[in-house]
Amino acid sequence: MKLMFASDIHGSLPAVERVLSLFAQSGARYLVILGDVLNHGPRNALPEGYAPAEVAERLNTLAERIIAVRGNCDSEVDQMLLHFPITAPWQQVLTAEQRLFLTHGHLFGPDNLPALSAGDVLVYGHTHIPVAERKGDIFHFNPGSVSIPKGGFSASYGMMEGNKLRVLALNDQRVIAEVAINP
Questions:
Q1: What is the C-alpha separation between 141 and 156, in angstroms, rounded?
Q2: Pair type for strands 121-123 and 138-142
Q3: Is the pLDDT at 147 greater than 60, yes or no?
Q4: If both were cysteines, with which of 92, 93, 169, 173 could 100 make a disulfide (CB 3.0 to 4.6 Å apart)?
């Protein structure tokens, strides 16, 4: 199963339009959104093209193909604009080989792991810093942020295809980080 990951949109219309364009070209079955969808939050500057209502409208066109979790900047009011659920603090996707534990990263994350089995993948956002690596028996995957990148990285998103997890630059699809996930 091919999946695309986006995190920390923070209401940026240009970022979500780029994500949706790439999703349409990707052949991915689902777009996994790892929280912080509409609001920028009090600690972040306004992202380019801040337009939360328009972001909701664009995402709603693909509601049946979106899997999402709640971020620390998401609220019940945001859910009123979106036609797909965003209020779950975590979700799980099961593949034939492993479990993907999807979370934003503020409740569960690298420093507060949920119960995972060897070979499982912790998929999170929140830090805005891309990660694709194995730590012990668990894989860690963070697609970075599509709107407010940090740590000197460019805006980025993630792809899972076959046994590869990749973080790609939003503008030129250059590989920022990559890990092979083997059961």
A1: 12
A2: parallel
A3: yes
A4: 93
Q: Provide the Cα torsion 145, 86, 25, 121; round to 10°.
A: 70
Query: How many other CB atoms sit within 10 Å of the CB of residue 141?
Result: 24
Range from 43-52, 142-151, 158-167 carrying the lowest mean pLDDT: 43-52
Q: What is the DSSP letter of 107?
A: S
Fold of 3-180: Purple Acid Phosphatase; chain A, domain 2 (3.60.21)
Distance CA 113, CA 12 (A): 29
91 within 8 A of 125, measured Cβ to Cβ: no
Residue 89 burial by CB count (10 A; 0-12/13-18/19+): exposed, middle or buried?
middle
The per-residue pLDDT for 46 is 87
**pTM for the model:** 0.96
Domain boundaries, given as residue ranges, for the chain: 3-180
**Interior CA angle at 36 toward 35 and 38, to 5°?**
125
